[in-house]
Amino acid sequence: MKISVFGLGYVGTVCAGCFAVEGHEIVGVDPVQVKVDFINQGHSPIIEPEIDGIIARHTKTGRIRATTDPLQAVMESDLSFVCVGTPSLPNGDLDLRFIRRICEQIGEALRTKDAYHTVVIRSTILPGTMHKVVIPTIEEFSAKKIGKDFGVCNNPEFLREGTAVADFRQPPKTVIGEMDRLSGDLVASLYEAIPAPLIRTDLHTAEMIKYVDNCWHALKIGFANEIGNLCDSLEIDAQKVMDIFCEDRKLNISSAYLRPGFAFGGSCLPKDLRALSYQARMHDLQLPILNSVLPSNEMQIVRGLKQVMETGNSRIGVLGFSFKAGTDDLRESPMIEVIERLIGKGYDLRIYDRNVNIAALTGANREFILNRIPHISRLMVPEAEDVLAWAQTIVIGNSDPEFKKVPQKLRADQCLIDFVRMTTPEGKYDRSPLTYA
Ligand SMILES: NC(=O)c1ccc[n+]([C@@H]2O[C@H](COP(=O)([O-])OP(=O)(O)OC[C@H]3O[C@@H](n4cnc5c(N)ncnc54)[C@H](O)[C@@H]3O)[C@@H](O)[C@H]2O)c1
């Protein structure tokens, strides 16, 4: 394939070199003459293992050359990869200057090109940028129509500096955000030989995933460092602790707990977060990440509460209020918190949880419900149907399988809020928490 690569920095140079290795014909574009000269003289403009040799080899085979002329590059390629920088503005927003300029240049070039052309944004851009900036700018400057005369894809880059060429051969995944199948197929064909999951999705999801990945990686590093600092203060070997932590592939290094939903609670997580945070304070240690987890959880409770209130109904029914399905434990259940706040605001409530039976409760939980929240036991009804028959707004508070069929039982005047997303219908836009109005 004939590919133009816009921006010969870290991402663009690796992209150009590695696609040339795969047998494609590359023309690199950069306004910086020195970078263009470097490539044309067989050198890499960036320092990165293996890349210098690749550029040297493929400028000789004629598969790589570079130019400062975007028009020539678009005319001589079927597909353009955009790898320009997207730095931060002082307020933290993205500086889209380079992306805009590229779209203008590619648009101007497409004005005089008859063949269908695909523009692939490889730079990291915030969700919505393809629709709000990239497509309208190319359309304006080309006077052509997306999907008819040209196509776009978003193909975020997951390679790490220092191992970028090796990562190109074996990336963690390839993600292609697309609008039209033709462009998506074209980009997918470039990755046929790459042994990694290939995920084709919509543009917004592709734009978002790169940010989610990077924020997650940053969070992991920050978390490990905070644990390391605390271990140091406690004279515990942090490497040993984290080695054991990482051995757990079921709950720690896994997809467990990574589905957006409602707040956490129960008798362990909040208590243990508080205790570790207190230990850190005793050692004059700041742990901003760990200290922010409970406030973040509180925001999730407030968010849920707001959603219930926004339905405008006064009769609220709750299905499931122990802290998770399959237990009768009510200690620090976030649903109990929502229920208490709704009572405080004067809402009328009926609540049901098949696992919570006052007569059968024992120990700390019995003490908790009878002494700390006796007003809540008065709201309990014996059957889910009692809630369904009476309430105007129904809230599913834990994922007891009994509640799976609730959407089918709703009357037209009722509204369901599913905090735990257990009733998400196939194909429905997956918001969290999920509301059926
Ligand atoms: N560096 C990484 O490891 C990495 C990894 C993943 C994603 N990204 C993302 O990829 C994008 C590029 O990052 P980078 O580190 O390669 O940036 P970079 O600053 O190294 O390179 C950008 C290049 O674009 C060129 N450029 C500017 N305007 C141009 C124009 N109109 N036409 C052609 N070229 C133009 C610049 O001269 C420069 O050579 C960013 O959005 C970044 O967030 C970077």
Helix and strand topology:
Elements: E1 2-6, H1 10-21, E2 25-29, H2 33-40, H3 51-60, E3 64-67, H4 70-75, E4 79-82, H5 97-111, E5 117-121, H6 129-142, E6 150-154, H7 164-169, E7 174-178, H8 181-190, E8 198-201, H9 203-233, H10 238-247, H11 269-282, H12 288-291, H13 293-310, E9 315-319, H14 334-344, E10 348-352, H15 363-372, H16 374-377, H17 384-390, E11 393-396, H18 406-409, E12 415-418, E13 434-436
Parallel strand pairs: 1-2, 1-4, 2-3, 4-5, 5-6, 7-8, 9-10, 9-11, 11-12
Antiparallel strand pairs: 6-7, 12-13
Bound molecules: nicotinamide-adenine-dinucleotide.
Residues 6-12, 29-32, 35, 83-86, 98, 101-102, 105, 123-124, 157, 159, 161 line the site of nicotinamide-adenine-dinucleotide (NAD).
Arrangement of strands in the largest sheet? 3-2-1-4-5-6-7-8
* Number of beta-strand segments: 13
> In what range is the share of β-strand residues?
5-15%
Mean pLDDT: 93
What is the total domain count?
3
How can the largest sheet be summarized? 8 strands, mixed
CATH level-four homologous superfamily name of the largest domain? NAD(P)-binding Rossmann-like Domain
Q: Radius of gyration, rounded?
A: 28 Å
The CATH class of the largest domain is identified as Alpha Beta
Q: What structural category do the secondary elements indicate?
A: alpha/beta
| CATH topology assignment of the largest domain | Rossmann fold
Q: Cα distance, first to last residue?
A: 49 Å
